[in-house]
Structure formats: structure tokens, C-alpha cells
Amino acid sequence: EILPWDVDAAAIRSYAPAGVILSGGPESVGLEKPPVIPDLVFRLGVPVLGICYGMQAMAAQLGGQVEASAHREFGYAVVQPTASNRLLEGLADVAHPDGVPALNVWMSHGDRVLELPPGMRRIATSGGSPFAAVRSDASPGKAPIWGVQFHPEVVHTEHGRTVLRNF
């Protein structure tokens, strides 16, 4: 089910999602009135995955910092996992020169997360994104929150479907 960013809380509750994916888009959290994520999304107790703008909006709303990047990433990029994690577990398209497994992904963004919100940690990086993938710290009774700067939903991300299944 695809719902707009400004959907009311009653519609979200009535749908009773098993998980929420916050999609990418052409917006910037630096706008005067950017699209925002309904607060309810983070209180539903279901896993949340922010993709590109979804990750940036999530980071900004939860207390992190997002900036316009001097280096726009558009096209193929290599993402290196930096921590063991379920989202990217076992996925590797290439071996980075230092021997670390890496993923070929599709990027399309001008903004990037500069500082993570409290409770989030980096799980992958790329040449232009210090936080190419992030995850909330595990805590009892809370569903995980994930964010990826790349686009797993496009065919150009070689293991994108697996990333979405892992979510």
C-alpha cells in the first residue's frame, strides 16, 4: 500500500502495517517546509526502513543532522558494510581493494546525513556518504529502524530485492 507523506494517523492505524518503508523523492529536508514523517510511524512498534530522502527525513526528525553535500552521488556506487547487520548480511557483489566485501548500488542524492540521531549507528559507508546505511540500536520491545542512502528498489542495485526481503 502506498500512502502519501501527509496521511493522517487514523489512516495509518486502520491499515495496521507490518512494516513501513519511507521512500525516496526529489525533496530536501533543508526546504522551508519539507515533507515530514508522521510521528506515529516511529511509535507503531513495526520495523521502519528509510530509503534516500526517507532516511534523511528520519535522521533529521529523530535528532540527527542532514546537509547539502558538495559531492552529489548519482549512478553506481560501492557501499561497504562497516558492521555486522541483518539488512546487508551475506551480500557482496565485489571485493573492495582492502578485501572487504562491498555492494554495487544505485545512488541518487544531493543531501546526506552528516550526524546520526541518538540511538542510531552506521552499518555501511560509500565514497560520498559516510552513512550509506544505518540502524537503530537494539532495545527490548522496539522494532528496528533502518536507513539506506542508496536505492534497493531499483534493478541497478544488484541485491536490492534481497535487501528489501531482509528488511
Description:
The mean pLDDT is 86. The chain has helices at 9-15, 53-61, 160-166; strands at residues 20-22, 48-51, 65-81, 94-95, 101-115, 120-126, 133-136, 145-148. The two termini are 16 Å apart. It has an eight-stranded mixed β-sheet with strand order 1-2-8-7-6-3-5-4, with helices on one face. The chain has three helices and eight strands, in the order H-E-E-H-E-E-E-E-E-E-H. By secondary structure, the chain is α+β, with helices and mostly antiparallel strands.
Write the layout of secondary structure elements.
Elements: H1 9-15, E1 20-22, E2 48-51, H2 53-61, E3 65-81, E4 94-95, E5 101-115, E6 120-126, E7 133-136, E8 145-148, H3 160-166
Parallel strand pairs: 1-2, 2-8
Antiparallel strand pairs: 3-5, 3-6, 4-5, 6-7, 7-8
